[in-house]
Specification:
Elements lengths: L5 H16 L24 H10 L15 H9 L16 E9 L11 E8 L2 E8 L14 H4 L9 H11 L9 H14 L5 E7 L9 H16 L5 E7 H8 L8 H12 L4
Parallel strand pairs: 3-4, 4-5
Antiparallel strand pairs: 1-2, 2-3
Helix pairs in contact: 1-9, 5-6, 8-9
Length: about 280
């Protein structure tokens, strides 16, 4: 039996995961719900996250957020319970005091759209910025930077490994195929400008199906992540990566908060699919 392309197989499986998680939901032919509320896990309220989503640059609620395969909705479904209780989030530096979705991190380049982080957690020990990915790594990418990134960045960011990597990718824009390396570098520039005097970590959080090994692209994506991480080792803005399933497995080992185990169960019911 011929294996379906990964993108189509995963999109279809995620649509089925939504219907399994919320029986009675209606999806159009492209896998979109009519009302953004229908794309949230049972028990989550759009009202709790809507102000954040509306201030983002991508107009997510009217467009991409309504897709069963939305990476923004995946991030919201995963982290929304921590919105009102950020101290309960035990990830990276911990000690979080606030959590935001679609958070803008201006990079100081006039006329350029500021980077939008899917999740930004502010803590006593530093900043955790999360870039969420669902099906995006199943399409190829080419690094591209407006000239302003080279000509207008004249501060300390110019001396970082992030800037050096941007210069390398400008010369070789096809160095990464499945990882959107240019987007991560732009995020780092935004974080570095917005939070100059705060320790910060950029977390790349990506989804995979239960049978990821059936599709070579997932292993290729992981290899690119590892290569990218090695290239920015030691940067003031740290970079780390993990899969959503790995995050949920880690959460399952936590005894508190008492609602976390049930939350992980809902996440796995919705997103733990075989493609």
């Amino acid at each position: 039996m011929k294996t379906r392309p990964a993108l189509a197989a995963c999109r279809a499986s995620l649509a089925q995961g939504l219907l399994r998680s919320a029986p009675g939901s209606q999806l159009d032919a492209k896998g979109y719900v009519t009302d953004a509320r229908d794309n949230l896990l049972p028990g989550l309220r759009l009202e709790d996250v809507e102000p954040d989503l509306r201030q983002g640059s991508g107009n997510e609620l009217r467009t991409k957020f309504r897709a069963a395969h939305s990476s923004s909705a995946l991030a919201v479904n995963c982290f929304a319970p921590f919105k009102t209780n950020p101290a309960a989030l035990t990830l990276d530096c911990g000690g979080f005091t606030s959590l935001h979705f679609e958070h803008k991190c201006p990079h100081g380049l006039e006329g350029r759209t500021p980077p939008n982080l899917d999740v930004l957690a502010n803590g006593r020990n530093g900043i955790l910025a999360i870039e969420s990915k669902c099906l995006e790594p199943l399409s190829s990418h080419k690094a591209a930077f407006a000239p302003a990134y080279d000509t207008k960045i004249q501060d300390a960011r110019r001396e970082t490994v992030w800037f050096s990597l941007m210069q390398e990718l400008t010369t070789n824009p096809h160095a990464y195929k499945w990882l959107d390396a240019a987007q991560l570098i732009k995020h780092a520039f935004g974080i570095g400008h917005t939070y100059k005097d705060r320790p910060a970590t950029l977390l790349y959080l990506y989804w995979e199906p239960l049978n990821a090994d059936a599709f070579p692209v997932f292993a290729q994506h992981r290899a690119e992540i590892a290569r990218f991480a090695a290239s920015v080792t030691g940067a003031a803005i740290a970079f780390t990566a993990m899969s959503y399933p790995a995050l949920w497995a880690a959460w399952e080992t936590h005894a508190a908060p008492d609602w976390l185990a049930d939350h992980v169960r809902r996440l796995r019911l919705r997103y733990g699919v075989v493609a």
